[in-house]
Every structure is written in C-alpha cells, then in structure tokens.
C-alpha cells in the first residue's frame, strides 16, 4: 500500500541541473530495531541518540537527461567510483519512485564521504541514506516550493527509512523514536519523530565513545539479520519486550534514573546479540575483545560507582555511553584500560548531536 500523503506531486516547476550538499549523522539505538516486515515496517518501536561526529557528507549533482526511461547515477566514496554501492541505491530508488517523480529525469552524481570507517558496525547506512534522502528532498522542494518544513522533514525521514530503517532516526537531535507506540504521540512506523518529552539534565550532551574493535566488513549484514527474525523462536516475545522497554525508557529519560538507564540499555544490547546467536542459521558478531571491554566496564562501574555503560550495534564495536559530568574520568579509564582492545588503538569520541545540516 502506498502512503498517499507522500506520493509525488504532479504540479511541478522545471529545473535543468543543480547541486546540493547535506551532512547527516549516525545514531545509536538505546531500544533496538531488529526485525521488520515488508516495505521497511519495523516489528517494534525503537529509540536512538543522534550522534554528532560520525557523519556522512553527500554532494548530489543532478543534470537533466534526454530520456526518462531508467535511473542513471554514479557513486563516489572519498572521490573513488564505487560501483558496488550501486545495487543498494538502485533498490532505494525503486522503492522511492512513487514518492519522487523526477528520479528518472536526471543523471545523478553522488559524491559521499564518511567521518568514520565504512562497514565498521557504525551505521554508515543510517547516515548515508539519510544524507541522500535529504539531497533528493532538496530537489523535490525546488520542484514543489509550497511544501512546508515540517512536511519536508517527515518525508525525508520516510524516504530515508526506505533506504535503511535506522536512517529515519538520524535527521534530528537529541532522541528520535521510530515505530508506533501508545506512549509517544504522533509516533509512526513510516518515519521517525523527535522524543516529545523534556529530557532530564543527566542526559544532556551524553557522551558516546565508540571503541573500534573490528573495522573489517561485517560477516552478516543487518538486512539478512532482520530477515532471520521471521522464523525466529523468540521473536514475538522480543518485539513485546522492546515495546515495553520503550515505555520504560520514556520514563527514565524524563526522571534521570541512570541506574535504570544502564540496566535497560545494556540488556537491549545483549538481547540484540542473543537474537543473532539464536537465529537459524546462527551467527556471532561480537569478538573476544568486545567481551573483554564489557567486563572491564562492569568492573570499573563496581569499583568507582561510575554511571558508564555500553551498547552494541550489529557489529563488534562497543559504544561506551556516559554522562557529560564523567567525561574526564571515563575518558581516562578508556585510555588506560580499553584502548588496548581496539584495532590499532582506534576509537571515536562522539556525543549527542542535532541531526541533518545543509552545507
Ligand atoms: C542493530 O537500519 O541497518 O543497528 O533497515 O535493513 O537497513 P536495514 O537495517 P539497519 O538496522 C540497524 C539495526 C541496529 C539497531 C538499530 O539501529 O535500531
């Protein structure tokens, strides 16, 4: 079924060519999206912190072409042509064709760069697809100048979701919810919405230091992992749990209870990986150093009463989350005890960000 409100508008101005550049960040889920239905509809509601430093910057050049029979585009990563990205973008263009009427009218040159390693378990698909969706919406806006900014934001998130589910949560800060939930007014399976409540000061400018345990390509992509939730023995219970956790974290983010935050976020991370380990076929994305880091964090917390905790994406890297008030002490702990477990000693210091930016 097509979402009528976002369908392509027929009354359009004409443009010949142009260029637009957007930067969009990655995000880190606190309650995880893992499992989806057709057309990128999530099985449960998820919520994420928007990041600040881990970004994709995409420059889209569009030139009117002779015919409008096919898509025509080239993709460059860090200035190098990347034909292996094309199939994913072709799928994306096919999915969004009903919503953008101009996709076959132009040749697109998509030039993109990341501030973090590609396929490192940091969701480059989230920042990449949201940046591309924002570029395409700039063209849509030029053709249909009457669209208001609220509608543009929703439609950008809607399109980004069709590229990669988690991408729909990258457009705004600090916290974005995706998926219908009774506790979140106006929440939707079709796009992300800003967390609608005041967040406690404990969570202001929360820190996320990403420990790069393994920078290689993932053995199992998120898309395959999501599909394995279809015949998974624990999936239904997991979707119920995630929606309950969303309700709990909605209260925690307002009341500032950091101990409850830690339990919920760490349990979500381990449950995500438990789902992978209990899929058929089963798989493990954590590495020995992922577990070393988790154990060190637990020991540090016990010894110091720190409120540091971890979460994981679909990869081996560890996101170390902590309040801004503990910035110096936790960073020191990371340097002293955790960097040794990172590939080539690499880590990225990030914090909560604001989302999309037009450059
Ligand atoms: C583990 O958004 O990458 O990061 O929709 O197939 O592109 P697709 O999947 P993707 O899945 C991300 C899953 C996760 C959890 C999360 O970000 O909520």
Report helical residue fraction: 25-40%
How do the helices and strands follow one another from N- to C-terminus?
A: EEEEEEHEHHEEEHHHHEEHEE
Beta percentage is: 15-25%
Contiguous helical run count: 8
The assigned CATH architecture of the largest domain is 2-Layer Sandwich
Gap from first CA to last CA: 35 Å
What topology does this entry show?
Blueprint lengths: L16 E15 L4 E2 L3 E2 L3 E19 L7 E6 L2 E2 L4 H11 L9 E9 L9 H20 L5 H15 L11 E4 L13 E3 L12 E5 L10 H6 L7 H21 L2 H20 L10 H17 L4 E4 L5 E5 L4 H12 L8 E5 L5 E2 L1
Parallel strand pairs: 5-7
Antiparallel strand pairs: 1-4, 1-14, 2-3, 4-7, 4-8, 5-6, 8-9, 10-12, 10-13, 11-12
Structure write-up:
The protein has helices at 86-96, 124-143, 149-163, 222-227, 235-255, 258-277, 288-304, 327-338, and strands at residues 17-31, 36-37, 41-42, 46-64, 72-77, 80-81, 106-114, 175-178, 192-194, 207-211, 309-312, 318-322, 347-351, 357-358. With 359 residues, the protein is of the alpha+beta class. It has 2 domains: 4-196, 2-Layer Sandwich (Ribosomal Protein S5, domain 2), CATH 3.30.230; 204-351, Alpha-Beta Plaits (2-Layer Sandwich). Helix 2 (124-143) packs across helix 3. It is globular, with a radius of gyration of 20 Å. The two termini are 35 Å apart. The mean pLDDT is 94. The protein binds ligand DP6.
List keywords for this structure.
359 residues; globular; 2 domains; single chain; 14 strands; alpha+beta; 4-stranded antiparallel β-sheet; binds ligand DP6; Alpha-Beta Plaits; Ribosomal Protein S5, domain 2; 8-stranded mixed β-sheet
